[in-house]
Amino acid sequence: MTDPRVKRMAEVLVNHSLGLQPGDLVVINSSTLAGDLVREVYRSALGVGAYPVVQTQLPGLSEILLTEGSDVQLETLSPVESMLNERANAELRIIAEDNTKALSGVPAERLNRFAAARKSLRQNRMQRAAEGDLRWSLTLFPTQAHAQDAQMSLSDYREFVFEACYLNDPDPVARWRDLSARQARMIEWLNPRRNVHVSAPGTDLRLSIESRTWNNSDGKRNFPSGEVFTGPIEDSVEGHIRFTFPATIQGHEVAGVELRFEAGKVIDASAERNEEFFTRMLDTDSGARRVGEFAFGTNEGIQQFTGNTLYDEKIGGTIHLALGAGYPDTGSTNVSAIHQDMVCDLRQEGEVRVDGDVFLKHGRYLTD
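and the corresponding structure tokens:
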């Protein structure tokens, strides 16, 4: 029997995250491991009069393509994917993996080639979303692989996921609206300001947010969510930062990352684990060494590292930045085939000052 919270999750995704309307063409992307949720989303989408198109993939197919496909095959776009990228009104991607390290043996240059070929799809998706022509959401369905990454049993991890998504509440959407109101107050405070200074052990980073737009991420584009983010001025990032948590990048766990910036560009990068892979990723294209996103994590219901960026970047009292593509609706003009988030934890030690005023200190926000 399907957990009733899976049905509740589907209803929140359809009605709150995507806001589906009669006649909408909605694409549901996932693996067969998320079958329970895919079925409920499909049912709920039909219920509001939308037209769901399901794109499911067997576990392991990406590994076969990336290890055995020719260069031409890596670079060739599916005509179905291209058509849906242009025509869909909404898109839902459900992460559900059986092995999050399945691509760890794939050389970086093949991964970069595959990503570069899809750069136009990413940019078109971001531009359509900025213009209000596309609604999209990213979520995760708990699997054994994700539970192992979080060092939990599957049953405990499922409970963690449902709690972080407010699905144990009788009215989850009301909880997301409360979070949205809190984040709106943060954005109101941030909007007129110009300069950000992050200081923590191993970190002394400055950037400009002047005239950029802050996005209130309240359970729509990410589910769960809990962040406010913007795109910093592309050439403004200066200084150095050390990221607290490892990041799994295309199956490679990269840990102990340190970056040094000058005039907005990464001029020096190191990692304690998988450094060569990471530095090759930075050479994907000219935008890969610049910051496309800077964000504050606000979800107090997520307090532990799980090994999945969708959750880890939302931890209340943290910051994260993404190298690569920025979101046009924040004002970012950075274009890249990659968008890689990495998290710096400020809950124990560290602070963020904005125009000289403390905004975040030891995990607590000024506006709370």
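(Above: one complete record from the training split.) The mean pLDDT is 96.
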